[in-house]
């Protein structure tokens, strides 16, 4: 538990002080279409930086899996949190959501389910279901197949890893949980 707390503190620090830079934008342009970038650019700066870090980790991991499509892995990393564009959270608000989810998961789930119909709690609903929301947004711009499936299921609390989990899903979940 202490390890998870330390990890979350580092993540918060990173979110406060990271900057989405020009080289990150160049990286993103190399992998996403104009429509995908239009969605991506609606993310908060700290979320865009997080996505780039995840995508670069996935690209590095691809060296150990030559059978995998590197381009697809990077796109998964860049787009995995696209559902958060509807959240509009600051780093402080996101930290509060994560703290509640970590220390009071039943209460978090209660608020998230209330948020499906109650605007006061909508932020919890969007945070909890951002994977599926992101997959739905991407489907509307013409993306299909495994990319949607992996993005929809990238939260292990909602969709635990199992024996039939794709290697792409495992790589995304690992990269997403270790920055």
From TrEMBL:
It comes from the Bacteria. Gene3D superfamilies: Hypothetical protein af1432. InterPro entries: HD/PDEase_dom (IPR003607), HD_domain (IPR006674), HDIG_dom (IPR006675). Signal peptide: none annotated. Pfam families: HD. Residues 57-177 form the HD domain. This is HD domain-containing protein. It comes from candidate division WOR-1 bacterium RIFOXYC2_FULL_41_25.
